[in-house]
Every structure is written in C-alpha cells, then in structure tokens.
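Lab notebook: predicted structure, single chain.

Context: the supervisor wants predicted structures on file for every construct in the current expression panel, including those that have not yet been purified. This is the next one on the list. No modifications to the sequence; it matches the entry in the shared construct table.
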Amino acid sequence: MNCNEFKEKVADLFDKNIDLKTQQECNEHMAICPECKAYYEELRETFNMLQPHEAAIPAEEQHTDNHQVNLNDGGAKVPNNIKKPKLWRYAAVAASFVLGFFIGWNHLFSTPAVAESKRITFLQQSIQSVQNVGSFQMEVYARTTPQENFANFDPAMPFVKTDIRLLRQNDSLFYRVEKANGRTVVSDGRNQYMWVPEKLHLKGSRGANFLERFSNLMFPERLLATQKSAIALSKENKVTQTETDTTVVLTVEGTEKYSDLQQLFETGKMDECSIIIENTFTKNDNLLRFVKLWVVKDGQKTLLLHINNIRYNVMLSKADIIRHPDAEWTDVTQHQPTSGSSLEQLKNETAEQAAERILGAIISGNESLASEALVYYKSVFNNLSKRMKNCKASDFQVRKESSYAGVYVFYTLTSPDGKQEKRHIALRNDNQQHIWIVDGGL
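Prediction complete. Output recorded below exactly as produced.
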C-alpha cells in the first residue's frame, strides 16, 4: 500500500464494519510511514472529540504534538462599565460555531449504510486528482475574527479572509495559512510556527495541531474524504448532484452541533443545526474549485464560509511560504511532565478545582501555581495576569458536551470595582498523565 492508497482507505478505519484485510494493510503502512500515521492520528483525534463514549487518546504525543491549541489571547479583559452581571460574548469564543468534520459525524455509527456509489466514485476520483497536484493556493472567507483560533467560527461576525498556500516537494510539505492582519501558521517541513502579531509566538513539531480542524479545509482531499464517508455511512445525510457543460456541483446536507456556550451553561446541552456544503468541480479534471458552507439555525440560513477559486499547480516560492518573524518562541514540545507526589495530587484534582487553582495563579501573577496547566499560555501569561490583577473568580460550574473532549468550567469574574462578568475556561485531561490543561477561554 502506498500513501495515496492509504489516504483513500483511511476513513474506512473508523467504520466498525471494515474488512480485516484493509485494516491490516493500513496498519502495516502506518508502521513504516510516519507521515500517514500523523495524518491518521489527526483524523482520529477529531473523531474522538466528536463521538460520545469514545475513549480519549492517551498517548503523550497527542498531548504535546497534536494538542488542540485553543488560545483566546484577548479573552481575559476585565469588563468596564458593566452595571449588572453580563452573559457574554468572549470575543468570538462564546456563541461561536466550532465546526467538527462538517457533516454530521455524530450520525456515522448509528445509521445503516446507504448506497451512493455514483457520487462516491466521483468524490474518489476528485480526491485522487487533488492528491496528484504539487501545489495549490486558495482564499477562505469565514465568519470569525482575525486573531481568533482557526477552528472558531461565529455566524454573527463579518467575513475574514484567510490566505492558504501549500507546496509539496519530494517528501516534504510546506504551507502558510494567514488570516488578514491576524493569526498565522507556517510549516517549514520540520516545525510549525503560530503567531498573533505582538501577542503570541508558539513553535511546535511537524505534528503540532495549531490549525485544529481547520486543516480539513486547507487540504481539499480531507474535506472531500469526510464528505465521501458521510455519504457512504449515513442515510441521515442528503446528497444531490447537478451538472453544467463545464462543472459538477455536489451538495451535501447533514447536521452538526451548534456550539452555543450560553445554552450549554443554562441547559447543559447544545442544539443541533443543519449544515449545507456546496462543492463545485471543473468537469475536465475533477478538481474542486469552489466551496460554500451554510449553517441553518431556527429557520435562518447563514453563509458561514466560502472558498474561492482553488488554484492548483501554481508557481510558489518556498522561501516566501516559510518566512516567519524573528521572535522569542514558546516551544510547546518542550513541556516537562509533572512527576512524584505533585502528579498524584493533580491527577485527583477535579475540573472545578483545577480551574480555581489556574485562575488563582493568573490573578496572583504566580505562574508556578499552575505552570503545568498553562504551558500553552507561557508567552501571554504576564499580559493575562495584568488584565486580571486584583479580580476574584467565584461560582464555578462544570459543563460537559459530548462533541468536546474536555469540559467547560463557567465562573463569575468580579473586578476590583465590583463589576461582574460571566466567563468560562476550557480544560482537557486526555493526555498521558491525565492532568488538566487549559485548552481555551482565557
């Protein structure tokens, strides 16, 4: 089995009815191909996050290299001129729409397979066409904010442009994903760099998951592969196909969680919403050219993102793709694991206790009180501490949502002048040591 054949089959590994021969061939290929193993691990992490009752990934490398870095750099601002407790909009994090794999993955294992051989064959042909290109460039317009995480979307926000350039040379992959005037991720084939100008500079290994699930957009074959599996495995997803003289339009409809944190806090659950993805291909080469994604909530249809004119085999400069600022980088792979009696104490800590301790460290300015939990916030700790100085965190309440591998801990932040704001912190303990790590909200 070669790499292209593996990528054609990898989605089948998540099907409970996979034949043993395919499973064995995929496992044997991953044993000798670290690139395909990393590709599979990224897919598995997303499935684990979106599937209820799935076990978390215990491997240490998932804690470091593939950890979801959900940094909300400006989220710790102390509210001003608030006359009463206020339920939120933490930048674009509260009430944000966080896409999973876009097409109702929560249904994949609960419904019988449905025959869509013609459309699946077309998608497979397109996946193979995309895999054969050496470079591509595209613009993604998504409702978010320039500095927000790549995986966070908010239907109430205006569109922000993200430029994507990807270059394959021999066995190396180089890419640049750059929000206009905001967050950027660069891979030089060995390491990844993520930064927000003047706020954040993180460095990780080639497997670092700085892009989170946004990577399923920047790799057209991944976006198509997830839709192929959704069509093949679930009758809950509707698919239609139309053609013109030059194009084929494939539209897939499914459901996804509408990540409304206010609703989670108040009711303990999140509603589902409808998702519609329109894929436009050129007929002569089966290449994906345009994508539109709508979310339908309470009868209102909102265009959440669109990808314009994906251009393949374009002339790209490797030097221009991998350039990054000359800055002091926080290396997320150099986190030293906790050991001894301290480890046992942290493993027995509840999420509520961890949140209280972590926020206490930030408010007091004493990072050592929670350094193991704030490893991804080292470069912005002083700024967070300054903004929350002399505040008080109280009224902690934990909420768990099946589509997220961690938990949300809601709390009330009281500023020195008595003003209050309802906030949250996202925590995960699906690492080898099973200790709570800050995953977002700050």
